[in-house]
């Protein structure tokens, strides 16, 4: 490897995916600037939602959105139980078993809804339980779900405006977006099913005949 090749290898290049990711995040920040609200979670959703292909973008964006959706509603439910028992916000130790229960429910639901949602869902769940004021936990969760969804949508729109060479060859456009989205959903549903079957085999959950 000569010096030029070594430099090309060591110095990262700014490619189209880099530009699209930065553009999606900047557009989120711009939109939220005019809405006068924090763009943080929308920008995170936009960055998560940008992949090397449309199917990968759908996958990564789905991980973030569905994880936030599932984790947010579980967190709201568990925190509502805590507030019902301790309206003054005391006895924080009770959040420990609620965390255990919440993570178990999160994993079970994500196995059937969206496997990749466990990690981002866990983030939202823990923030809701441990780092959200008691009087705003519902609005916090709903806002995070909304912001994440907006960020993912903006990311997908940016991808459609600037599709990769592979997706151009596959004929991806605004006209074919719905067909591509249905295909991505079906592909991920199949992966979900195979994942659950592998998990059952690995942990001996399959009924032996």
Mind explaining what this structure looks like?
There is one protein chain. The protein starts with a helix and ends in a 7-residue tail after the last helix. The chain has helices spanning 3-10, 16-35, 40-48, 54-85, 95-113, 118-130, 137-161, 165-169, 177-202. The protein is mostly helical. The protein is built from nine helices and no strands. The protein is globular, with a radius of gyration of 20 Å. Helix 2 crosses helix 7.
> What is the beta-strand fraction?
under 5%
What's the average pLDDT?
87
Q: What's the helix count? A: 9
Total strand segments: 0
Uncertain spans, ≥5 residues at pLDDT below 50? none
Radius of gyration: 20 Å
Give the termini separation. Answer: 58 Å
For the structure shown, list the relevant keywords.
209 residues; mainly alpha
Topology:
Blueprint lengths: L2 H8 L5 H20 L4 H9 L5 H32 L9 H19 L4 H13 L6 H25 L3 H5 L7 H26 L7
Helix pairs in contact: 2-3, 2-7, 3-4, 3-7, 4-5, 4-6, 4-7, 4-9, 5-6
Quick synopsis:
The protein has 209 residues and is mainly α. The chain has helices at 3-10, 16-35, 40-48, 54-85, 95-113, 118-130, 137-161, 165-169, 177-202.
């Amino acid at each position: 490897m000569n010096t030029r090749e070594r430099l090309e290898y060591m110095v990262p290049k700014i490619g189209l995916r880099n530009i699209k990711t930065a553009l999606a995040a900047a557009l989120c920040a711009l939109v939220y600037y005019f809405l006068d609200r924090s763009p943080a979670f929308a920008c995170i959703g936009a960055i998560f939602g940008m992949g090397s292909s449309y199917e990968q973008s759908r996958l990564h964006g789905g991980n973030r959105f569905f994880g936030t959706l599932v984790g947010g509603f579980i967190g709201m439910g568990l925190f509502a139980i805590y507030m019902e028992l301790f309206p003054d916000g005391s006895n924080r130790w009770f959040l420990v078993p609620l965390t255990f229960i919440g993570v178990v429910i999160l994993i079970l639901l994500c196995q059937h809804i969206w496997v990749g949602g466990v990690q981002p869902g866990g983030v939202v769940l823990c923030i809701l339980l441990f780092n959200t004021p008691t009087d705003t936990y519902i609005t916090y969760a709903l806002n995070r779900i909304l912001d994440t969804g907006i960020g993912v949508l903006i990311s997908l729109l940016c991808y459609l405006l600037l599709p990769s060479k592979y997706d151009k060859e596959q004929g991806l456009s605004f006209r074919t977006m719905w067909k591509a989205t249905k295909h991505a959903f079906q592909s991920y549903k199949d992966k979900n099913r195979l994942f659950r079957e592998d998990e059952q085999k690995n942990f001996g959950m399959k009924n032996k005949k």
